[in-house]
Amino acid sequence: MAVATEAITVRHLSKTYATRDGAVAALERATFSVGEGEFVAVVGPSGCGKSTLLKILAGILASSSGEALLRGTLIAGPRRDIGVVFQSPVLFPWRTVLDNVLLPVDVQRLGRRPHEQVGVDLLALVGLKGFERKYPWELSGGMQQRVAITRALVHDPAMLLMDEPFGALDAMTREHMNLELQRIWLERRKTVLFITHSIPEAVFLADRVLVMTARPGRLLDDVRVDLARPRPLDVMNTPEFGAHVRHIRHLFNVQGRIDA
Amino acid sequence: MKNVRNVAVTLAIFAGSLGAWEAIVRAFAIPIFILPPPSQVALALYRGFASGLYLDHLGYTLLETLLGFIVGSLLGFFLGTAVAMNRWVEFFLYPYIVMFQSLPKVALAPLIVVWFGLGLTSKVINAALVAFFPLLVNTMVGLKSADEDRVSLMRSLAASDGQIFWMLRLPNALPFVMAGLDVAMIFALIGAIVAEFVGAQRGLGMLIQSMNFNMDVSGQFSILLILSFVGLVLNRGIMLIRKRVMFWDPSEKPAIETSPEEAVPAAGRAVATPAKERI
Q1: Taking the domain B52-269, which CATH number applies?
Q2: Are the C-beta atoms of B218 and B151 separated by less than 8 Å?
Q3: Rounded CA gap, A146 and A149, in Å?
Q4: CA A157 to CA B211: how far, in whole Å?
Q5: What domains are defined for chain A?
Q6: What does the pLDDT read at residue A4?
Q7: Per-domain residue ranges for chain B?
Q8: How many interchain CB pairs under 8 A, A with B?
Q9: Contacts for B4 with CB less than 8 Å, ≥ 6 apart
Q10: Measured between alpha carbons, how far is A78 from A99 in angstroms, rounded to an integer?
């Protein structure tokens, strides 16, 4: 079996925050890797260090110990080859939709000319053709999050980090956005690290689901999801899907009993 | 329909109160040097403008106000930026700023007239001094209020501090700065008038003072009218600029219909809440 190239490599990664009540461990010796073009979801209860992990990978937070590598090079600060999608769309109200999408291009001085068409094409890909000149407040929450996803893709990053991107959306919009994200991913094949606290969402979207424990965050299991793509929403009613969800939920329940 | 009715009611209330004022003054034979009737005020207004006297003084006061506004706002903006962006500047300067802020700035007017004379300079300095603080405080708050997530986004894109300032903090501070300008404009007018009270050779404030000595109450009323009109026009001017600069702010969208029941005070809609100011 050929070994896939690793996009993300994380070894013994720990993070402790200094607080007034002493050191609090947010992440403890996390070790995993994500293959090139792989979609990996991270699930865990609130406060399990998921966001800490993401911030370290995004280069905006330093780890306490251990190391994280992106395509073999150490992540030691903000990088230009990462696209991040946050829980809220984080759009700039004074920029049009297209100008918001082109923010990374402006910041990294990649040149507006060649990228304007890239932005327009990506907006069409996420179903926002014709919205280029609108302002964020003219868009619904789901549409705003699509703009955020487009912005994360426009500079053609090596990996996409998503921190509960659909957490603030209503259930119907969320299901729709899951389908859309899968479609975009099948077309673009970026490496994705997707953080969520919804087990069904993780199983639906991911090739692998990393299960994390409550604080301090540790990796509990690495679940491979071998469901055929593209997955329709109906896949959630299949026994295979149910088995994965049950297995992960069981892991949390067992963990809960041990902690208590 | 509703609009026509509202305008009609507004005009009726205005005409009614003027009529009542006139009637009361005549009925009780109130002396003109205590409370002049509206007809006398109108007459004084007409005479003042017809003789060219008011226009000359009005122009002078406007010049003082606008110069003071520009100087004070620019200083307030740049110092506010320095305090917000540099920890050391904040550490060493902020205590003085707080101390100075709690001082009623118009109380300095006599000193400033002594230092800078009876001419234009002392008026501009006093106006600038009063207009300075709303800009300083609002710029500071505005620059510091950039959303944490937006800063994180910029950092994740490897943006430099300069880029974060120009692309995020500055546009983000604009609603605050505009709210500060709004206040500073009126404050500058107050500063100029007070300085004229203390000692001046020209200007509407000086005119009020000399009319007061002559017990010309009708004249004073006519100048108060001019001043409130000037304040209104200056305020409108700032609002026009604000609309242009902050086209992206949803609260700047034009209201479709405004009637008393629907009218929302602008301050309630504005994104920025300007810090409380003292003159």
Answers
A1: 1.10.3720.10
A2: no
A3: 5
A4: 74
A5: 6-81+159-259 (3.40.50.300), 92-157 (no CATH)
A6: 55
A7: 52-269
A8: 55
A9: none
A10: 22
- The complex's ipTM works out to 0.85
Give the residue-averaged pLDDT of B134-155: 92
Q: Which residue has the higher pLDDT, A127 or A3?
A: A127
Report in angstroms the alpha-carbon separations of A244 from A24, A182, A221, B261.
32, 18, 12, 57
Task: Summarize pLDDT for A96-141 with one digit per residue, the tens.
Answer: 999 999 999 999 989 888 899 999 998 988 889 999 999 999 999 8
CA B44 to chain centre: 26
Neighbours of B65 (CB within 10 A): 28
B244 interface with A at CB cutoff 8 Å: no
How many C-beta neighbours within 10 Å does residue A26 have?
Answer: 23
Tokens of A79: 């990088």
The pLDDT of residue B250 is 63
Q: Which of residues 91-110 of B touch A (CB under 8 A)?
A: none
Q: Can you list the alpha helix ranges (DSSP code H) found in A61-170?
A: 97-101, 103-107, 112-125, 141-153
| Nearest of B121, B100, B177 to residue B144 by alpha carbon | B177
Alpha carbons B79 and B52: distance in angstroms, whole number: 41
Identify the three-state secondary structure at position A49.
coil
Chain A residues within an 8 Å CB radius of B142:
none
Q: Note whether B167 contacts A106, CB cutoff 8 Å.
A: yes
Burial of A237 (0-12, 13-18, 19+ CB in 10 A): exposed
CA distance B254 to chain A (A): 15
Q: At B169, list the tokens.
A: 């903090």
Residue B43 token pair: 């007459």
Asked whether the bond before B260 is cis by omega within 30 degrees of 0, the reply is no
Tell me the two tokens of residue B59.
């122009």
A219-224 β-sheet, strand order = A82-85, A159-163, A191-196, A39-43, A208-212, A219-224
